[in-house]
Amino acid sequence: MSGKQVTITSRDGAFGGYLASPKTGTGPSILVIQEIFGINEFVREVCDYYAARGYFALAPDLFWRIEPGVQLTDKTEEHWKRAFALMQAFDIDKGVGDIQTSISYLRNVPGCSGKVGTVGYCLGGQLAFLSATRTDADAAVGYYGVYIQDRLGEASHISKPLLLHIAEKDQFVPKEAQDKIIGTLSGNPNVTLHTYPGMDHAFARTGGAHYDKANADLANSRSDTFFREKLG
Fold first, then answer.
1. Share above pLDDT 90 across residues of the chain, in percent, rounded to a whole number
2. What pLDDT score does 123 carry?
3. CB atoms within 10 A of CB 170
4. How far is it, in rounded angstroms, from Cα 32 to Cα 47?
5. Rounded CA gap, 70 and 21, in Å?
6. Which pLDDT tens digit goes with each residue over 11-60?
7. Contact yes or no for 39/31 (Cβ under 8 A)
């Protein structure tokens, strides 16, 4: 299944996105939130994965204000340096605004049921958390989100279902941060938390250095069930 490039218009300008559609032409939608590498092959694969399961899946280019059309890999030191530089330059608040704009775009895609979930990885995992606190998304899933521990003051705003996948040995989210996240969110009836023993950051990134198929499949199956239940 292959998607297409689309243009999303915001108050600040237009930015691109990759949209994959279900064969049926109807269904709910999922907004796929990028890692620090832009809308690369992995992100497009995630969109295609959800489209194959009956969803419209859109990955918006959230780095467009810095550098439109970024497509990096995790294979070279040069790409890692560029990716970290982009993350440092990225405006989180404007990014969340672009996510809300993209959610509204999805709701108006012909055939969309109107239900929209979000799923994000790494930087996108933090943004998925913020989509649960700041946007009108119907459900959100975050994979090994970074710096969520610094955003927990917003936890009281979570009113829709949120699922977080936490990598126990995440080199970018130390145990102290994980404990803070779990301690703050575990009592919220809208939040589901899953921890993956022995897993490092990006264990669900196919082809990545820490990819673990068994745990990636488990996390993805939990996300699939979550979205089926919450988006209908």
1. 99
2. 97
3. 23
4. 7
5. 22
6. 999 999 999 999 999 999 999 999 999 999 999 999 999 999 999 999 99
7. no
What CATH code would you report for 4-231?
3.40.50.1820
Annotated active-site positions, please?
170, 201
If you average pLDDT over residues 57-64, what whole number do you get?
98
Question: How many whole angstroms separate alpha carbon 161 and alpha carbon 89?
Answer: 30
State residue 232's pLDDT score: 85
Q: Phi, psi at residue 219, to the nearest 5°? A: -65, -45
Q: What is the 3-state secondary structure (H, E, C) of the chain?
A: CCCEEEEEEECCEEEEEEEECCCCCCEEEEEEECCCCECCHHHHHHHHHHHCCCCEEEEECCCCCCCCCCECCCCCHHHHHHHHHHHHHCCHHHHHHHHHHHHHHHHCCCCEEEEEEEEEECHHHHHHHHHHHHCCCCEEEEECCCCHHHCHHHHHHCCCCEEEEEECCCCCCCHHHHHHHHHHHCCCCCEEEEEECCCCCCCCCCCCCCCCHHHHHHHHHHHHHHHHHHHC
pTM for this model (two decimals)? 0.97
pLDDT at position 8, please? 98
